[in-house]
Amino acid sequence: RPPTETPRPTATFTPSPSATPVVTATWLTHPANHITAPILLYHHVADVNDRYYVSPAVFQQQMETLVSLGYTGITITQLVDVLMHGGLLPERPVVITFDDGDVDVYQNAFPVMRSPGLVGTFYVVATRLNADEFITIDQLKEMIGAGWDVGCHSMTHMDLTLNHEAMTYEAGECRNTLQKELGIPIISFAYPFGSMDPFVAEKVAKYGYLAAVG
Length: 214
Fold this sequence. Notes:
The chain is α/β, with parallel strands linked by helices. The chain has helices at 56-68, 76-85, 103-114, 137-145, 167-182, 198-206; strands spanning 27-30, 39-42, 44-45, 53-54, 72-74, 87-90, 93-100, 121-124, 149-152, 188-190, 211-213.
């Protein structure tokens, strides 16, 4: 997980025309608990020389490669539903996730993925909504309308293993806030910094999340 203070660019990437065809996936019925799907984690998509950044050009290349290999993007919500109940998923599913809620994901990743029909899951920090250089509620709603999923990445991005007393606010209130603002169910949680312990995991389940990622 990234440090909370990292330089953020202001430029917007314009994706280059892609020759990668949109592949029509074969959807298969999967029994519950028997699914293999890679989950990719990104933070920033921008031209910054930092380990948490992928350049827009490289990101576009990666997405084109996934499509050319026959992968179809699904959301965490789709994956969890079929894991729990069984159901249809594409033959080669991939879950593409983004942490923190930075606006460069909307500016530089969203248009690249939209062209070949890929979708993602965006884990946002609730107190950063509408803040400078972070995603706005209207932008999130646009992404949801294009098939994206949204999950909670806590209220303030603190290491929850170091402050158990904050769980009600960080996990419980985060879910309430996002559901109220976006009008959709929030069913998954991303642990800040990837840090979790049994207490944190138990509380995340208690507050209504069906899944969590790290």
